[in-house]
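Example (one chain per record):
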Amino acid sequence: MHIHEYQAKQLFAKYGIPVPEGGAASTVDDAVRIARDMGGDAWMVKAQIHAGGRRAGHFENAPQGEGGVRMAKSVADVEKHAGQMLGNALITTQTRPAGREVDRVYVERACDVQSELYLGMLVDRHSSRVTLIASAAGGINIESIAKQHPESIVKLAVDPREGLGEEAARSVVSELALGDEQAGVTARLIRTMYEMFVDLDASLIEINPLAITAANEVIALDATLTFDDNALFRHHDIQALRDRAELQLGELEAVQHGINYVKLDGNIGCLASGAGTALATLDAIHLLGGEPANFLDVPPVAQVGRIKEALRLLLSDPGVASILVNVFGGGIMRCDTIADAIIMANRDTPLTVPLVARLAGTNATFAIRRLKDAEPDVIFASDLADAADKAVQAAKQTKEIQRRSWWQRVRGVSGET
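Predicted structure:
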C-alpha cells in the first residue's frame, strides 16, 4: 500500500525525523492560506500523486519544464502553481501515458540546500533482510547514478536478531563525507528509519533527497513510504491513509475482496493461479503480439466466491476484448473451483467476450467436463502457448466485430447503403 508524501512526512515527524513545515491543500485558496500562515519568502508546491519523477514530469496545460515540484517565491506564485496542478493530470515516467490527476498539493517551506544525500530501506529478497541503501549523490538522478557509478552506493543488510545498532549506522554514514555533527544526526536518523520500518511493517522507506542546509541542518525534503499489504490488519491507522482516488479501475474492489489485481493498458483480461503463473501468462501474451489488460492472481486458498468476484472485475473493464484463465491446480487449488466460479459468474453476468481456459493439474478433467456441460461458451486450450495464442486471436476478432458494428451504426445514421 502506498501513501502520499505529505502523509509520509507526518509519520516521519511523529518518529522525530526532521521535515520542513508544510500542509496539504485540495484547493488553490487552501494552498495560498497555508503559505501565508507559514510566512517566509519562498515555498515549494508539490503535486501529490502515487508516482515518482514528479519534478521532471509535465502537465499538458503548463509551460514546458514546469513539473509537479516547483518553487514559489511569492504567494502569487503559490496561487499560480496550485492552479496549474489541481484538477489536471501530471505525466511522469512512472504514470500511464495519460498521467494521474492531481487533487491535492503539498505546500512547504523552502530550504536553502547545500548538498543532497539519498537514504533508502527495503527488504532484500536475496538476503531475506531489511537492507539500508545510502549515497552521497542524492536527488532526481539517483537511478542513473546507481547504474553509472555503482561504487557510490553503500548497502548494509541488517541482521534481524541484532537490529541496526549505532556502530553499524555510523559505518554507513562514514561513507557519506559528512561533518561530525551532521554524521551524528544522520546516524540517529538511519536508526529511526529502521525502527519505523519494523514498527509499521513497511516494505520501502525512501528519503530522496536528504538535504544538508546552509545552516548545517539535516532534513528530509522528500518522503516515500510503502507498506506490506499482508500486515495491514495490524495497522488500522495506516489503512485509514489509503487514497482510494489513486486506485485504478477495479483495484478498489480487488482490495475489498482480497484479490491481487493491477490494472494494465492492454485488452486481454488475465486470471491465473499464483503470481508466477500470472507473470508467465503476461509474458506469453506479449510474445504472441497481445497486450494484457491486468495482472491478477488468485491465492491458493481462494473459494468460489472470491474467484467469481475476480472474473466480475475482468468483465467490468470496458477495454477487455477477451479473457484468459490460466490455472494449474496443485495442492489446495483445484481446477473445479475455477470452473464453478466461471459458471456462477456467467449466470450473474453473461460473458460478453470470448473466454479462453487452460486448466491443468488437480481435477482438471472434471472441471473441463463441468464447463462443457454448463452454459459458458469456453474456448479450451491445451497449454499456455496455445491459450495465449487463442486469447490474442479472440481479442482481435472482438475488436473487428466492434469496429464493424460501429461502422454499421455510422452508416445507418448517415443514411448510406
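Caption: The chain has a mean pLDDT of 89.
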